[in-house]
Amino acid sequence: MSEIFTKGMARNIYYGGGFFFLLLLVGLTLDTLRELPQRDHRENITESVARGKAVWEENNCIGCHSLMGEGAYFAPELANVYDRYGNGNEAAFAQFMQSWMAMQPLPTEGRRKMPQFHLSKEQVDDLSAFLIWTSRINDNDWPPNREG
C-alpha cells in the first residue's frame, strides 16, 4: 500500500462509503416496511381506536406520558397500561379508565397532578380502545419493566 494518501483515494473512500451507507439505509427501510404490518396489527384498528388516538393527540397526552418510548418521561409509560391494569379483560380496563380519569387530579402531596380533562364517557372508552390496541403491538417487550 502506498505511503501517501492522495486526494483520489480520499474521494473514493468518501463516495464509496456514502454509497454503501445509502444502500444500507434503503435496505433497512425496506426491511422495516416489510415487518411493520406483521408487528403493528393495523387490521385491528377500529373507528374507536382512531377516535382514541385523536383524543390522545388533542389533549397532548404525549406531553407528559410516553408511548412505546416516544414522548415525555414526566409521567408513566402507557404502552403497557392495559397489561398492568386490564389483566386481559377489556371491559375491566375500560371501567378502570373511566374511574381513573374521573378522579383526576389526585390529592397526592409533593408531586404534580394529572389535570382533569373533562372527557366524556365515549372519549374515555375510545382512549381505552387506543391504549388496548397499542398494548398489542409487537414492540420487543417495551418498556423493560412492568411499571413503565
Summary of the model, kept short:
With 148 residues, this protein is mainly alpha-helical. The protein has five helices and two strands.
Protein traits:
2 domains; two-stranded antiparallel sheet; mainly alpha; Cytochrome Bc1 Complex, Chain D, domain 2
- The separation of the N and C termini measures 54 Å
Structural class: mainly alpha
How many domain regions?
Answer: 2
Poorly predicted sequence stretches spanning 5 or more consecutive residues = none
Radius of gyration: 23 Å
* Topology order in helix (H) and strand (E) letters: HHEEHHH
Q: What is the architecture of the largest domain at the second tier of CATH? A: Orthogonal Bundle
Spell out the CATH superfamily of the largest domain: Cytochrome c-like domain
CATH fold description of the largest domain: Cytochrome Bc1 Complex, Chain D, domain 2
- How many strands appear in the DSSP assignment? 2
Instruction: Estimate the helix proportion, in percent.
Output: 40-55%
Description of the molecule:
Helix content is about 55%, strand content about 5%. The protein is mainly alpha-helical. It has 2 domains: about 1-40; about 45-148, Orthogonal Bundle (Cytochrome Bc1 Complex, Chain D, domain 2), CATH 1.10.760.10. It has a two-stranded antiparallel sheet with strand order 1-2. Helix 2 (about 45-60) packs across helix 5 (about 120-135) and helix 4 packs across helix 5 (about 120-135). The chain is elongated and about 75 Å long. The chain starts with 6 loop residues before the first helix and ends in a 13-residue tail after the last helix.
